[in-house]
Write a structure and sequence with these properties.
Number of helices: 5
Number of strands: 5
Number of domains: 1
Shape: globular
Helix content: 25-40%
Strand content: 35-45%
Strand order of the largest sheet: 4-1-2-3-5
Radius of gyration: 15 Å
Structural class: alpha+beta
Largest sheet: 5 strands, antiparallel
Length: 140
């Protein structure tokens, strides 16, 4: 079974080497979103994008996130997020895109994923080539 500790390596293995191929990463991420993770009570999936200067430079971020709530002995401990993040130079078209959508706002994960695939915030960057991509997990 997938655990929070091995979720990043599991997803990286599923995606393979070509992490700049957004469509390929999305398909692997989508399948991963439906797989159970040990100790997970609810699926917490986030799609977000926008122009931010987290790196010290204003870049367009496209980010697929799976969030895990960690409990130790039935007590809340912390959260971790597994990101599939793509960075782009902000064009006029990309600069107008900004959104954050959580799966918990939908009846089921399929409705959420279908909704995301129909958003312009998803469709427009999907056909572009990122300047950088990264898959990483962090405590939040």
């Amino acid at each position: 079974m997938i655990t929070v500790m091995n979720a990043e390596s599991y997803l990286k293995h599923k995606i393979g080497e070509d992490t700049d191929d957004i469509k390929k990463v999305w398909e692997a991420f989508k399948a991963f979103c439906k797989e159970p993770v040990e100790g997970e009570e609810d699926k917490e999936i986030l799609f977000q994008c926008g122009v931010y200067d987290f790196t010290g430079e204003a870049l367009f971020h496209l980010d697929f996130v799976r969030q895990f709530t960690i409990y130790e002995e039935d007590e809340y401990s912390h959260m971790e997020q597994l990101h599939c993040e793509f960075l782009f130079k902000p064009t006029d078209e990309l600069s107008n895109l900004e959104i954050g959508e959580w799966s918990m706002d939908y009846d089921n994960i399929d409705d959420f994923l279908s909704h995301i695939e129909n958003l312009q915030e998803f469709k427009i960057p999907l056909i572009l080539k990122p300047i950088k991509s990264e898959i990483y997990q962090e405590a939040v």
